[in-house]
Amino acid sequence: MNHTINPPTLVVPSGYSHGIESDGTRTIYLAGQVAFDAHGSIVGAGNIVKQFDQALANLREVLIAARAEMADIVKLLIFVKDKEDYKTHLKEIGLVYRNYFGKYFPAMSLVEVADLFEDGALIEIEGIAVVTE
């Protein structure tokens, strides 16, 4: 059986769950997170670094609610509206990344997309975490 993970510190999801945990496997499937604050407003309008930071903070909130941590993430999929904007700010993004992961690097993919569902979102990050107990 699967259980939804919807922390009260994130915007209430409509039509999706922030995360799904499967019984017995402790695999957590993390829904794509944009730079929403708890009220559903985009943080860091026009700033990919601030949006990257908030999206990772949101992923961390889901993991905390699932009794997991960022180092349990085994795969990240990052969607950006403008890969050149991402590349331009790669150093700053790297500093933000290290605040959440240190020197740990899960498998990652970066995909440039024409648009994201949420207006004002420049980046969306989803992932898979596996908790070893």
Key attributes of the depicted protein:
alpha+beta; single chain; 60s Ribosomal Protein L30, Chain: A; 6 strands
Can you characterise this structure?
By secondary structure, this protein is an alpha+beta fold. The protein has a single domain (2-130), classed as RutC-like (60s Ribosomal Protein L30, Chain: A). The protein has three helices and six strands. It has helices at residues 48-65, 83-88, 90-101; strands at 2-5, 19-22, 27-33, 73-80, 107-112, 123-130. Strands 1-2-3-6-4-5 form a six-stranded mixed beta sheet, with helices on one face. β2 (19-22) and β3 form a beta hairpin. α1 (48-65) runs parallel beside α3. The longest helix is centred in the middle third of the chain and has 18 residues, at 48-65. It is globular, with a radius of gyration of 14 Å. The mean pLDDT is 91.
Oligomer: single chain
**Helix and strand succession?**
EEEHEHHEE
What gross morphology would you assign? globular
Distance between the termini: 19 Å
CATH superfamily: RutC-like
Mean residue pLDDT: 91
Structural class: alpha+beta
Count of spatially separate domains:
1
Number of helices: 3
CATH-defined architecture: 2-Layer Sandwich
Total number of beta strands: 6
Any idea of the CATH topology? 60s Ribosomal Protein L30, Chain: A
> Within the largest sheet, what's the order of strands?
1-2-3-6-4-5
- CATH class value: Alpha Beta
- Approximate strand percentage: 25-35%
Low-pLDDT segments: none
The percent range for helix content is 25-40%
Most strands sheet: 6 strands, mixed
Radius of gyration: 14 Å
